[in-house]
Task: inverse folding
């Protein structure tokens, strides 16, 4: 940014840039018993909003940030099947 501001890109030509490491590992997820304990806890609490959040995260497999961006219009039904539209996700 400084070189662009100064209008002199030559000052950064010989600077080696550290490459970002790409992680090819699968993200950590909850085990079956942990999932069951989480569901039991939110169901015992009885808060329908929290129950919906936990079930959506566990059964649809979306990220928390994607869940936060969902709108009611993102829940669709077509030919008797329901699905959720996830916008701006990192995957395909």
Result:
């Amino acid at each position: 940014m400084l070189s662009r501001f100064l209008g002199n890109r030559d000052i950064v030509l010989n600077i080696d840039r550290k490459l970002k490491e790409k992680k090819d590992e699968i993200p950590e997820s909850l085990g079956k018993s942990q999932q069951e304990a989480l569901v039991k806890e939110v169901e015992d609490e009885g808060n329908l909003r929290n129950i919906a959040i936990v079930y959506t995260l566990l059964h649809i497999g979306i990220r928390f940030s994607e869940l936060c961006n969902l709108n009611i219009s993102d829940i669709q039904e077509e030919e008797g099947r329901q699905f959720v539209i996830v916008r701006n996700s990192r995957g395909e």
Q: What stands out?
A: Strands lie at 75-78, 81-84.
